[in-house]
Amino acid sequence: MIHFKQVSKLFAGKAVVRDLTLEMAQGEFTVLIGTSGSGKSTTLKMINRLVEHDQGEITFAGEPIEKFRVQDLRRRMGYAIQSIGLFPHWTVEENIATVPQLLKWPKAKIRDRVTELMALLHLDPAQFRQRYPHQLSGGQQQRVGVARALASDPEVLLMDEPFGALDPVTRGTLQQEVARIHQLTNRTIVLVTHDIDEALSLADRIVLLNDGQVIQHGTPLEMLTKPVTPFVRDFFGRSD
Ligand code: ADP
Ligand code: MG
């Protein structure tokens, strides 16, 4: 579905992603993990062209991503981030409906889709549809952010530390919801985190980045039981 071939990204002459080769299969849940500054967000943003890569090739559904119009690419890839970015003067319904509105879906279809997504994310439509973001808890805002990313039924869901700012209980609940969405819809998901437990519990495949390079990728079990370097062993073995 998404294929990186020897991809590099430079900022001010310095490579922050180096020679990255990766495949993300249709329906696979990939977690990019690594310490702060390891290049996770940059890697994710290269997929939907929020950041343009400098070297190598990235393909989506078999075509180089430059072949798609940026707006078409982004419609096919939902994007949810930690700092949510909900529009403060729009209701929950209007926020979730952002992309369907742009696509000029009929009103009734938008309304049905919003209802469906709110149910999927366990937000009671009767209670929350007309609320504004400031009338929601952090966890509820994150749910709206994920619902918005799913609104146009994108083939790919990209998430950058989507639960980063939440308390452990809410975080656990939302992790379960994302796992359930993955099972229900078999959507290709790429999630960035620095949380080891989150990576181990959600991923089909984990990619460990350090200093812009892939150190190891594999299933959670492989990462734990067959670390290729002491760095990998220490990373997954550390207690925090
Ligand atoms: P992570 O998400 O793993 O914390 P990032 O991909 O955000 O890492 O950043 C990787 C490196 O690239 C960091 O050193 C960061 O400072 C640098 N970087 C990211 N975005 C930019 C930018 N727009 N301009 C310059 N440097 C950047
Ligand atoms: Mg980041």
TrEMBL record:
Residues 2-236 form the ABC transporter domain. The keyword Nucleotide-binding applies. Keywords: ATP-binding, CBS domain, Nucleotide-binding, Transport. This is ABC transporter ATP-binding protein. GO terms for molecular function: ATP binding. The chain holds residues 1 to 240 of 314 of the full protein. Belongs to the ABC transporter superfamily. It comes from Hafnia psychrotolerans.
